[in-house]
From TrEMBL:
This is UDP-N-acetylmuramoylalanine--D-glutamate ligase. One of its GO terms (cellular component) is cytoplasm. Pathway: Cell wall biogenesis; peptidoglycan biosynthesis. Cell wall formation. Catalyzes the addition of glutamate to the nucleotide precursor UDP-N-acetylmuramoyl-L-alanine (UMA). It comes from Yeosuana aromativorans. One of its GO terms (biological process) is regulation of cell shape. HAMAP family: MurD.
Length: 443
């Protein structure tokens, strides 16, 4: 019996434990922190051995295979030890994918991957049986165990891609690549880019790579590191022979001389970046033979993603917007770009080596006040202090919202778009977004 050791008792860890047990592995789950109650119950109920608050080396280093949670960096001593012993370390998607024959759509990128994955799933589910997993919802492993769909849309992070071996999506999507998580990649942008491109590493000519042709990072990388996949680029600026492009406010998608055309006038989501997300999702749908009418209707009735430019409430003619999912500068760039009124901007958190320069023109033009919400706000104060009349700092969401309420005038927008990770003050970006919404409702 092969021994499967799982590091991290969260959603992906527990899902992998259940699937591993079903497939005949001897399973052990080890979490250095505390395992949430709901996950503990599942482990106990399924008689899976686990520990929390520590990693017992003797119970880990005898593994045949280790699945590590994407949150655990490679630099950790224990992970180095495991690798030195020649034990294979994989991510949940690598482990789980071998147990399904489903068609897999894998979506990665620095921004837009959740929206694109959710939108793609929304379109496909009108006609196909399809699961949504990866970085989102129930774990991929658990879905394969409980209801093995014939198709999956997976939102995949670079951390999950770092630990793949044979994983191969039939259709891969790279939405864009901008500097993010550089603390995990020795502060080398090229390491992070290489990590994203692992999504195509096992693809063949029979598989597809859909990507943003307007992104110089992706374009340059592909020229220097060609992939085997059939390429289907999308662009807002230039005609594309095979792929998608924007022509007079219409999306034109061509695959093997088969073209579909869709107006963008009634897209449910606003902003240039969402036209790109729509192009990527529609290209996937077109490849999987979804009817044009279905694609169009789905694009028009899609509700969007929680914590992503989510309109919360209008109070005294001030619009409050929750963009807590903006955990890097580029995501906040899209948010500020789409603001059309004077903006009170709530920003800050755990900085991942951010360079705020690309935001300067928007801040000068649109932002009337900045509220820094983080444990350490020094970098923000130094960067933006001279650009706005009002800059304040706080460590409480309720206070941040009250200050915003005092500053904002009729016709303004209050935007939570932190450009940083949330772990300094919150459990995760969802917790941060919910606290924001709660505070706004309590005004």
């Amino acid at each position: 019996m092969k021994r499967l050791v799982i590091l991290g008792g969260g959603e992906s860890g527990v899902g992998t434990a259940l699937l591993g047990k079903k497939k005949g592995f001897e399973v052990f789950v080890s979490d250095k922190g505390n395992i949430k109650g709901k996950y503990k119950e599942v482990l106990i109920h399924n008689e899976i051995e686990w520990e929390e608050g520590q990693h017992t080396e003797s119970k880990i280093l005898n593994a045949d295979l280790v699945m590590k949670s994407p949150g655990i960096p490679d630099k950790v001593a224990l992970v180095k030890q495991i690798r030195e012993q020649g034990i294979l370390v994989v991510s949940e998607i690598e482990f789980a994918a071998q147990f399904t024959k489903a068609t897999i759509v894998g979506i990665t990128g620095s921004n837009g991957k959740t929206t694109t994955a959710t939108l793609t799933h929304h379109i496909l589910s009108q006609q196909l049986e399809v699961g949504l997993a990866g970085n989102i919802g129930d774990s991929f492993a658990k879905q394969i165990l409980e209801k093995d769909y014939t198709n999956y849309v997976l939102e995949i992070s670079s951390f999950q891609l770092d630990d793949i071996v044979d994983f191969k999506p039939h259709i891969a999507v790279i939405t864009n690549i901008t500097p993010d998580h550089l603390d995990r990649y020795d502060y080398k942008f090229e390491n992070y880019i290489a990590s994203k491109f692992r999504i195509a590493k096992n693809q063949t000519k029979a598989d597809f790579l859909i990507y943003d042709a307007d992104d110089p990072v992706i374009d340059n990388w592909l020229q220097m590191h060609p992939v085997q996949s059939t390429l289907l680029p999308f662009s807002l600026t230039k005609p594309i022979e095979n792929g998608a492009y924007l022509d007079n406010n219409k999306i034109k998608i061509t695959i093997d001389n088969n073209q579909i055309i869709m107006p963008t006038t009634n897209l449910a989501l606003e902003g240039k970046h969402n036209i790109k997300n729509a192009m990527a999702a529609s290209t996937v749908a077109h490849l999987l033979k979804i009817r044009k009418q279905t694609i169009r209707e789905s694009l028009e009735n899609f509700q969007g993603v929680e914590h992503r430019l989510e309109h919360v409430l209008k109070i005294n003619k001030v619009q409050y917007i929750n963009d807590s999912k903006a955990t890097n500068v580029n995501a906040t760039y899209y948010a500020l770009e789409s603001m059309e009124t004077p903006t009170v901007w709530i920003v800050g958190g755990q900085d991942k080596g951010n360079n705020y320069e690309e935001l300067f023109s928007f801040v000068n033009e649109k932002v009337k006040a900045i509220i820094c919400l983080g444990v350490d706000n020094e970098k923000l104060l130094n960067t933006f202090g001279n650009m706005v009349d009002i800059i304040v700092e706080t460590q409480f969401m309720s206070e941040a919202v009250k200050i915003a309420y005092k500053i904002a005038e009729a016709g303004d927008t209050v935007l939570l778009s932190p450009a940083c990770a949330s772990f300094d003050l919150f459990e995760n970006y969802e917790d941060r977004g919910r606290q924001f919404k709660e505070a706004v409702r309590n005004l």
